[in-house]
Amino acid sequence: MSFARTASEVLRPDDIAPAKSFRLARRLVKRPVAVVAIVIIIIIYGAGIFAPLVAPYGFNKTDFDDRFASPSLEHPLGTDRLGRDTLSRLIWSAQTTVIISAAAVVTGSLVFGVTAGLISGYFGGRTDAVIMRIADTLFSVPTILLLLIINSTMKGRVDALFRDIENFLGTDWIVSSGLPSYFLVFGALAIFGWVGMARLVRSQVLSLKQSAFVTSAEASGASTKRILFQHLLPNVANLLIVALTLSLGAAAVAEVGLTFLGIGVQPPHPSFGVMIFESAGVTNVREHPQLLLFPAAVISALMLSFNLLGDVLTEEMSPRRR
Questions:
Q1: DSSP string covering 105-158, please?
Q2: CA distances from 192 to 104, 108, 232, 294 (A)
Q3: Residue 281: inside a domain
Q4: How far is CA 215 from the centre of its chain?
Q5: How many domains would you assign to the chain?
């Protein structure tokens, strides 16, 4: 996942303060596109977070006597081939998207990417060369190929690991909850998700480390950790806002794509990719197109919202706006 297209145009690095953040929020409220995008994201992510409370049925509750039911009060969006409530499946699938996209972005982009970018840009030299060569290697290899390899070689080991955890804790719900699949998918996405973020942060730090405030901090004896995370990091925060916004959308779509290809979250656990895969047959498309349309529409709306919000943030935070 690369975010250089949008985030590289972000505001000058020293321009961040609570008052400016408040002004940015006020400007966003005046942009209808941004408001609509934020509302859609909140609805979809909110439904996922509170799925146990708002979903009318369980994600795998079947009723074979009510297969392919039309929309009704009991089933507002109808049912699928197994009699499962479509609306409930969408809500539970949103939960999967929330878990995987948030975990992938936090571990990959935010933790690994930002840290690697700060270290690479500040220290330079061999440290920079090693980190950037690792990034270039990951960026040059086809992502799908590596994900297939990771899935085929690690899936059994991850399942065995979580079974061992179950035995240690004396429980039996961890594997059945689909946690191993979630862990494998967001872990694989995190491995590749840090590259774009690291490059962006590095490019900003390369210019910032010659600034007066960094020189002053070094002269006063500030530790490297303090310089990186209390001086440099706050000054790339505006860049991170846009990049993380795009990262969430990219991770959500990547999870759906991987699941559709059979290397992501596995049935019967809910996912937009699973719903699209199960409804993608020619017969289903002809006779029950809504089963494909609903999950495709939700994930399309989510991705479009993240992209539109990212574009608005880039425009509002650009130095040209001031």
A1: IIIIIIIIIHHHHHHHHHH-HHHHHHHHHHHHHHHHS-HHHHHHHHHHHHHHHH
A2: 10, 7, 24, 29
A3: yes
A4: 36
A5: 1
Range of the domain at 149: 4-56+98-321
Q: How confident is the model at residue 269 (pLDDT cuts 50, 70, 90)?
A: confident
Reference 249, options 297, 200, 300, 198; nearest CA is: 300
| Percent over 90 (pLDDT), the chain | 21
Whether 187 has a pLDDT exceeding 80, the answer reads yes
What's the average model confidence in pLDDT over 190-207? 88
Q: Are 209 and 15 in contact (CB under 8 A)?
A: no
Cβ–Cβ < 8 Å for 202, 117: yes
Q: Is 82 a domain residue?
A: no
Question: In this structure, what token pair is assigned to residue 127?
Answer: 């440290």
Q: CATH number, domain at 221?
A: 1.10.3720.10
- Our measurement of the distance from residue 231's CA atom to the centroid of its chain's CA atoms, rounded to an integer in Å, reads 27
User: Where is 276: in which H helix or E strand?
Assistant: helix 272-278
Please give the average per-residue pLDDT across 223-233, as a whole number: 87
The full DSSP string for 31-43 is -HHHHHHHHHHHH
Compute the residue count for the chain: 322
8-22, 136-150, 298-312: segment of lowest average pLDDT:
8-22
pLDDT (tens digit per residue) in 114-124: 999 999 999 98
pTM: 0.82
Residue 92 covered by a domain: no
Q: What are phi and psi of 273, to 5 degrees?
A: -65, -40
105-to-207, 291, 307 alpha-carbon distances in Å: 25, 29, 16
Q: Has residue 247 been placed in a domain?
A: yes
